Amino acid sequence: MKIVITGGPSVGKTTIISLLQTRGYRVVHEIATQVIKEGKILPWVDRGKFQAEVLRRQMAAESSILDFDKPVFLDRGAFDGEAYYLYDRMPVPPIFSTIDPTQYDVAFLIEPLTFFDANDVRREDLEFTLEITKIIEQCYRDKRIKVIRVPAMEPDKRVDFVIDSVEKLRATAVRSPEQAASMFRFTSAVVPTAF
Q1: Domain with 94 in it: what CATH number?
Q2: Is 122 left (phi over 0), alpha (psi -120 to 50) or beta?
Q3: Which of 9, 36, 107, 144 has its CB 3.0 to 4.6 Å from that of 122, i.e. a possible disulfide?
Q4: Is the pLDDT reported for residue 75 higher than 90?
C-alpha cells in the first residue's frame, strides 16, 4: 500500500514521516530536501531542472518498494512535482502523463499550521504554502487519487489520524488485477535522467 504524505512546505510532513518511522512503518523520505541539501541543483536557481531531478529520484525510490501488503509512507509523491510546475506556470513535462496514478492508494494532505518556520532548506513563506497546497490537492484529485485532509493538530495526533484512516482503508480495500499490475510499472520502466 503506497501512501503519500503531501502538502506545502513546512506543514509538518517530515515530522509525520519521522514519527511513522519510529512507530515501525516503512517510509520514503522527501527527495526534494535531499537534493537541496546537496546544494548542486536548487529550486530558487532553476525550478525546472530541480523538479526534473526530484522526479527522477522519486521514481527510483518508489521503484524499490516491493512489499505491497504493508503500508509504505512517502514524504511527497510524484505528482507533487507537477503542482510546482503548475504554480510556476511552466509546461508540465510529458513524463507526468506516463505515471500511473493507481499506484497510490491515498494521499494525506497536511494542512498548514498556524505558524510558519522557514529554514535554510525551505525559504518559502506561508502565502506560498497555502497556494501550493491547493494546487497539490487538485493535482491528486485530478488523477482520481483519494485525498484525505489532515487538520492542524499536535504531531502525534496527526500520526494517529493517518494510521486510523489507513487501517480503515485497508479493511475495505479490494485490489483489482490492474492495481496490482500497476504497482510494478516503475520497476520495469527505465527511469529517465532528463525530461
Answers
A1: 3.40.50.300
A2: beta
A3: 9
A4: yes
Question: Residue with C-alpha cell 484529485?
Answer: 141
- What tens digit of pLDDT does each residue of 40-53 get? 999 889 988 998 99
* Residue type (1 letter), 159: V
Predicted TM-score (pTM) of this structure: 0.83
Q: Is residue 79 assigned to a domain?
A: yes
d(CA 77, CA 80): 6
Question: Quick one: pLDDT at residue 119?
Answer: 54
Give the separation between CA 174 and CA 36, rounded to whole angstroms: 38
* Contact present, 12 and 162 (Cβ < 8 Å): no
Domain count, the chain: 1
The pLDDT value recorded for residue 62 is 87
- Residue ranges making up the domain that contains 49: 2-188
70 belongs to a structural domain: yes
As given in the structure block, the three cell numbers for residue 165 are 484512516
- 3-state SS assignment for residue 52: helix
Residue 161 resides in a domain: yes
